[in-house]
Amino acid sequence: MAAARLRVEAAGPLTTLQDAGRRGWMRFGVSRSGPVDSLAFRAALAAVGADADAGVAIELSMGGIVLTCVEGAVGFALTGPGFAAELDGVSLGCWAAGSVTAGQRLVVRATAGNWGYLAFAGASEVLRWLGRAATHAASGLGAGAMTAGRLLRLEGCRMLPARGLPMPGDAAAITTVRAVLGPQERFFSAADVARLTRDGFRTTPSMDRMGLVLEGSSLVPARLDMPSEPIVFGNLQVDGAGRITLLLADHQTSGGYPRIATLLARDAERVAQLPAGAEFRIVLVTAAEAVAIARAEAGRQRAWLAQVADAETLEARLMGQNLITARVDEDW
Amino acid sequence: MTDWPLFRAVGEAALLVELGDRIDDAVNRRILALDALVAQAMPGGVTELVPAYASLLLHFDPLVTDHAAVEQAVRSLVPRAVAGALQGRERVIPVRYNGPDLEAAAERLGLAPAELVARHLAGQYRVYMCGFAPGYAYLGTLDPALQLPRKLEIVRDVPAGSLIIAGAQCIVTTQTMPTGWWAIGRSDAILFDPGLTEPFLLAPGDRVRFVDESDGVRLVAEGG
User: By the 8 A CB rule, do B207 and B126 touch?
Assistant: First the structure.
């Protein structure tokens, strides 16, 4: 089997290995972990032909990454808004696939988004915890952080032709965010609940894999006497001082601060990709509407991921972009 | 009057079932019973159950089921979720009562440190829920004579293995963390060992007894 080894020369903070996440352990205080932007993550896996559940990718932060291939050769795919690749100084652009061979240097820079994904067409030998590679941020358990000097060993490597990948139909910066009210909206005044959809919100630089602090609407819980309740990805939590946090992939599993609303998971991922200072509004949908939206979007995402897996040439990229432009107009 | 159970949608892929709105022994026993009943029935599309003090969260795959279907499945099980005997295991945790807040907590409670220790040792505890961080088990119920509000100041870098108390709860911490709870002791018990197939010493419903491992009482006497 063809093997390859890649060495991390430099990496931004919060750069970790992730798989789809660890399920079933929240009852013991272990969050799922896994990617912050699961759609971009699944695209990276699809592009290298990896399994959506078992596949592993590097989650990149704003600091990007510099890798040197020290042995062998392997195909790769880079996804995530604004994450651009350069191979030995030659730009491959964003949403791109290609191959890196021994002696070559792969540089990824973040030009817009916060979370990018770099997957390889080979099986990575990484540590697993509770059967999963996903890195649990607070403990570092799982496959762990990618820091300077670390070697990534890959087995069963395949090369991939250089090609562009189609971008998702919802690649544009999100400005209207859909949410389901609650589950703890009863801790807020009617005026606060009205402000939730009337006032805008703004992202801040204060973010990590646990959550993203927001500014904007002034919300304060009327009381703080709730027993600790379970937390989900996308919960909008407001603490006693009115600090609003969107909870993400490594959220604490439970907490006693009320969650006034819960963003639809894909919308929460898109908010997590916004630059600091970006503004958005929240619109409320019912639970039934949220399920209908999730089902409709899942169908579009499947179709797009099939394109990502199949797109073979640069010509296909151009065609893909034309298709995507049409899609964006339709607001998939 | 609130009519339990209450069902609350949590985004597009989860449903929260509430059987009460406060920390209460009987309510929590019903939650743990419901957790076991739902796990046994495992309605189609449900992917993960997370019990808490007075609520049970059900994660589900929205491509397979929805809030209404999951609610219907759970509603039929609620009448059977009674506050019966706990199915949990018995765990013994050795403690040294030498925490940095022992004296201050005792003074605030109007007790001698030795009496605080004796009362804490006499308590019968159980795990109400796990949450916040891996292996973190919320134990209750603390003797009313030992119940204190949180400290005004949060202390940083409280080491793993600290026995901390606040309100009706106590916890043996599993990681270094900031906390406003009162650190009254230390334990070498391994509550979380990531290398094990079953890494967690405590699960919801387990009963816990503390034993005085060393000389908490003597140390206190010397300190006094």
Answer: yes
Closest Cα to residue B170, out of B203, B135, B146? B146
Whether pLDDT at B144 is above 60: yes
Q: Which residue of B has its CA nearest to A131?
A: B197
CB pair distance less than 8 Å for B62 and A294: yes
Helix (H/G/I), strand (E/B), else coil: B217: helix
Structure confidence at residue B132 (pLDDT): 86
Q: What is the DSSP string of A221-274?
A: -S---PPPEE--TTEEEE-TT--EEEE-TT--SEESS-EEEEE-HHHHHHHHTS
d(CA B44, nearest CA chain A) in Å: 16
Tell me the whole-structure pTM to 2 decimals.
0.91
Nearest partner of B216 among B180, B187, B181, B179, judged by Cα:
B187
Task: Answer whether A265 sits within 8 Å of B204, measured CB to CB.
Answer: no
Phi-psi category of residue A34: left, alpha or beta, with phi > 0 → left and psi -120 to 50 → alpha: left
Judged against a pLDDT cut of 60, whether residue B115 lies above it is answered with yes
Distance CA B122, CA A155 (A): 57
If you count them, how many residues does chain A have? 332
| Residue ranges in chain A whose pLDDT is less than 70 | 1, 311-332
When pLDDT is averaged across residues B36-56 and rounded to a whole number, the result is: 97
Query: Is residue A200 a contact partner of residue A280, using CB atoms and an 8 Å limit?
Result: yes
Res. B84 pLDDT band, cuts 50 70 90: confident
pLDDT in tens, B11-43: 999 999 999 999 999 999 999 999 999 999 999
Do A294 and B48 make contact, defined as CB atoms within 8 angstroms?
Answer: no
User: B48: nearest CA in chain A?
Assistant: A24
- Select from B11, B48, B199 the Cβ nearest to the Cβ of A24: B48
Give CA–CA dist B144/A326, Å, rounded. Answer: 66
Mean pLDDT of B96-118: 97
Report how far residue B165's alpha carbon sits from residue B180's, in angstroms, rounded to the nearest whole number.
Answer: 9
Task: Report the C-alpha gap between B204 and A282 in whole angstroms.
Answer: 36
Determine phi and psi for A10, rounding to 5 degrees: -160, 145
At A256 the pLDDT is 87
